Amino acid sequence: MRELVDCFLDAIEAREFEQAQRCLSDDEFLYTSPIDIFDNAADFIADISRVGPILKRIERRKLFVDGDQACAIFNLIATMDALANTRIAQWMKARNGKFSSIEVFFDAHAYSSMFDTLN
Asked: Fewer Cβ neighbours under 10 Å: the N or C end of the chain?
């Protein structure tokens, strides 16, 4: 499980979204966060690939693994001032060697404020 988490986060940080998608189940996948829900891997990857340009790096803080589940705590460092350092907890469940679900927890206030001013 630790290797799968590392593979996924490494791919996201390197903006290698095809590699990241190979870590996700094609048959059963659910992503939930305070700002988005995706019920398939392709739509999730398409969405995160659009925000890839603002990602500077991922600062990994802690990884907890329990069988086919893991929780990664990390800081997402972005180029935009409003999102410069987002603290994230990400709970992942795997089935057959790929993630079947990812649930992300973070303070979405900065995202909400940013999108409110765009409307």
From this structure: C
Q: What is the pLDDT along the chain (119 residues), one digit of tens a residue?
A: 999 999 999 999 999 999 999 999 999 999 999 999 999 999 999 999 987 888 999 999 999 999 999 999 999 998 877 667 889 999 999 999 999 999 999 988 766 665 554 44
Q: How far apart are CA 71 and CA 99, in angstroms?
A: 12
Q: At 21, phi and psi to the nearest 5?
A: -65, -30
User: Cβ(90)–Cβ(72) under 8 Å?
Assistant: yes
Asked if 78 contacts 54 with a C-beta cutoff of 8 angstroms, the reply is: yes
Rounded to 5°, angle at Cα 48 from 43 and 53: 145
d(CA 102, CA 72): 11
